[in-house]
Amino acid sequence: MRARKNKKRVPSFRKLLKTSKVKLDNKLKNKQFKQQSIAKKYRKEQRKLRQAVKDVTARTSVPLEENKKKHPTYHLTEREEEEEALPLDMMDEDDLKLMEDLAQKASFVTRDLSSIEPVHAKKRKQESVIDRYEKMPRRMQTEPEKELIHLLPIKDKSGIIPQTMEKPGKKQVEEPQPVLTTDELLIQRRRKLQEKKRHIAALAAAILSDPENSIKKLKELRAMLMEQDPNVAVIVRKLVMVSLMEIFKDITPSYKIRPLTEAEKHTKVRKETQKLREFEEGLVSQYKFYLENLEQTVKDWKQRKLKKSNVISLKAYKGLAEIAVKCLCELLVVLPHFNFHNNIIVLIVPLMNDTSKLISEMCCEAVKKLFKQDKLGSVSLGVVKVISGLVKSRNYDVRPEVLKIFLHLRIKEVEVKKDAEDITAKKKFMSSKEKRKNLSRMQRKWKKAEEKLERELLEAEASESKEKKLKLHTETLNIIFLTYFRILKKVQKSPLLPAVLEGLAKFAHLINVEFFDDLLVVLHSLIASGDLSYRESLHCVLTAFHILSGQGDVLNIDPSKFYSHLYRTLFRLHAGATNDDMVIVLQCLDVMLTKRRKKVSQQRALAFIKRLSTLALHVLPNSSVGILATNRILMQTFPKTDLLLDNEAQGSGLYLPELDEPECCNAQNTALWELHALRRHYHPTVQKFADHLIAGAPAEGSEALRPDLSRRSGTELFETYNMKGMTFNPPVASVIPRKKDKFLQGDSFLNEDLKELIQTHLNEAAVHRPLDFAEHLKESSLS
Question: Which residues form the Nucleolar complex-associated protein 3 N-terminal domain (predicted)?
Fold first, then answer.
């Protein structure tokens, strides 16, 4: 019979790669066990052969030591020693003869007998391909993977060697890239940037032309927010941010998209409806990812974190963060109705308190715009809640600008608790059953048309929306007052106090009457403490009189302490620089004297008019105009104050200008000699007001003011002639300037006639020393 041919072949390298690890481990264990059993069997045979050789060499001495190799001594075990101790006569003659024949073969005797491997072990010994593959060091794929073709492996003495080659046509010859100069690098960067800009413009145009079919392009454009080219990454990301912002502003619907319910998802709809649903779902998804990317950019900059790729430096992250905040602010204002608007509010409000002035101003301006365009009040309520929570969580350690945002709210009225008698029941329409029972057929017809008309009128009045608006405004104002009262109670020396007092002054007429007494006590204690700045004390006075001028009219409260404080502190106004304190002073005078005319005594009115006229000599022209306009209104409101235009004294006593009590300074015994000094003022409007007041502030005649001056309040005129940022050191009475060039070099408020007037005064060289000039004015006024 023919011997069967062994069909078992060595597996290929590709097949070995596909073999599971468990099978390979099992094969390896089996192979090791087999090798161990072969080695054990071989050792037994070696012991027998060594014994036979010793027996043969003991009988016949053959000089084979020359050919023997030196090998280490072999230590016999106890069993081997016992075997060596056996007598030679126990072996047969045939065995001895065989041993003698074997001893003649030098190749057998000279071989290293201490080796535990058989002669053919090297031929059979093959290192495992899998073991070699596992021992190979791994390399990160920094370069694109090459396409390889696996060939037949080669077998040699060391084992199986896999063979591969690169796929034809894909092999690229690596050429050393030339070093580019700076100009070439700039040209290359400019070219890349132009390509990116064209790509962004093409994607944006395609999305805007057909939004419903361009969600994939929108996704592609959003993916460019992660641009990895370090040469153009910063500019490309900024452009993509702004482009996506404009795209979302254009393609976003004017309603909020809600997620579909499970029932709606399984309901069959028309093809157009399904297409619209897919578009809305994709739009909301991409908008969400876009906002998350903007948020992450701002957070990375705030935490000074760099991405692992290091594509953008930490310094460039600030510019990215500013653009991200700008986009968030724009979306906050433009899309208040769309999804995730509350999330944008939560992101923007903490940035109002940011250390970066640019980011803080951007966020504050965005919230101001949002307040101005919010007609109903729901969005404003959400912002106020977040601001209140921020102030409380920071333990009232925030910038004053955060609280000043409340001043821009459009809250003019709130819900007032009504008595049961005042509440009128809503009109009910007759039911159809009542109509059939009580009315004829023709009457029912007329009644139906009448009710239809009434319903349309109710819808036009929007009574329901008005009630909702009042409810939202009331809740908003409650949160604001809660924040204000907490600050007044806990942190009275905080820099937030001016903002709190200004806010109380604005919304004082909306405060509940129950809080008036406690609030006035707190305001007076703040003024009396002396810890407030001048501006803060003015806000306290203004707040107190706003409270008393509204619902506080019914309260029996004496505000004389507030009158005395304002009268005493008028001369603390800065006379050499334009500031906003004058606006608050003019507002206080209007609320304290003009609007409370029935509760102001003549002595008090005379004292304030005299002190304001003295103050008009020292301040800048815009402040002088505002003060003189206020004096004009007071002289018209209190006609008996014209006695200040006469030199004769009224009653007993002398005028005491240094006294701080307006009721006791005897202002009726002085005259407004300051008006004669103001007639020679270098500002023409001040001259006109001085002439007008000397003539008794007439409403008609040659000394009457023009309509543009007479119909405006002191605050409005002060703002009109405001010289923001300018500082002067005028002489006493501000008649003639000391420095010629200071006033003639392009001041915005000076017209050509005024410049000629000043030049005339300068040519006359009528510059006097302050003391002499003051005496001169006093003499001329008394004459």
Answer: 196-290
What pLDDT shows up at residue 86?
Answer: 45
Report how many helices (DSSP H) and strands (DSSP E) the chain contains, helices first.
Answer: 34, 2
498, with CB counted inside 10 A (0-12, 13-18, 19+), is: buried
> Is 524:426 a contact under the CB 8 Å cutoff?
no
pLDDT more than 90, % of the chain: 23
Q: Which helix (H) or strand (E) holds 712?
A: none
> What is the arithmetic mean of pLDDT over 503-516?
79
Tens of pLDDT, residue by residue over 691-719, are: 999 988 888 888 888 888 888 888 888 88
What is the SS3 assignment for 555? coil
Which DSSP string do the residues of 161-211 spell out, in sequence order?
EEEEEEPTT------PPPPPPHHHHHHHHHHHHHHHHHHHHHHHHHHHH-G
Report how far residue 610's alpha carbon sits from residue 570's, in angstroms, rounded to the nearest whole number.
12
Q: What is the DSSP string of 674-695?
A: HHHHHTT-SSHHHHHHHHHHHT
Please give the helix or strand (H or E) that residue 153 lies within, else none: strand 148-156
pLDDT-derived band at 121 (thresholds 50, 70, 90) equals very low
Residue 481 CB neighbours (<10 A): 18
How many angstroms separate the CA atoms of 523 and 520, rounded? 5
Q: One-letter amino acid identity for 448?
A: K
CA 218 to chain centre: 24
Predicted confidence (pLDDT) per residue in 151-180, tens digit: 888 888 788 888 888 777 544 555 566 787
- φ/ψ bin of 269: left (φ > 0), alpha (ψ from -120 to 50), beta (otherwise): beta
Beta bridge partners of 144: none
The count of C-alpha atoms lying within 13 angstroms of the C-alpha of 758, restricted to the half-sphere facing its C-beta, is 21
Q: What is the mean pLDDT of residues 202-223?
A: 92
Structure-token pair, residue 410: 């459009």
Residue 267: C-alpha distances to residues 54, 260, 261, 285 (Å): 98, 11, 10, 22
State the burial class of residue 3 (Cβ atoms within 10 Å of its Cβ: 0-12, 13-18, 19+): exposed
- When mean pLDDT is compared over 308-317, 539-548, 603-612, the highest value belongs to 603-612
**What b/e string do you get for 557-583 counting C-beta neighbours within 10 Å, with b at 16 or more?**
eebeebbbbbbebbeebebeebbebbb
**Quick one: tokens of 301?**
């900059």
Q: Give the other-Cβ count within 10 Å of 657's Cβ.
A: 14
**3 state SS of 585:** helix
Q: Within its chain, how far is the Cα of 169 from the centroid?
A: 53
Angle, alpha carbons 104-106-107 (nearest 5°) = 130
Taking only the tens place, the pLDDT of each residue in 445-466 is: 777 888 888 777 766 555 557 7
CA distance 627 to 633: 10
Cβ atoms of 505 and 543 within 8 Å: the answer is yes
**Can you tell me the distance from the alpha carbon of 717 to that of 626, in angstroms, rounded to the nearest whole number?**
6
d(CA 412, CA 472): 12
**CB–CB of 335/341 below 8 Å?**
yes
Rounded to the nearest 5°, which phi and psi values hold at 761?
Answer: -60, -40
Closest CA to 550 of 521, 582, 580, 520: 520
265, with CB counted inside 10 A (0-12, 13-18, 19+), is exposed
- Alpha carbon distance 401, 499 (integer Å): 8
In order, the DSSP letters of 451-464 are: HHHHHHHHHHHTHH
Residues near 201 by beta carbon (within 8 Å), at least 6 away in sequence: none
Percent of the chain with pLDDT strictly greater than 70: 71
Packing angle of the helix pair 341-351, 314-334 (nearest 10 deg): 130
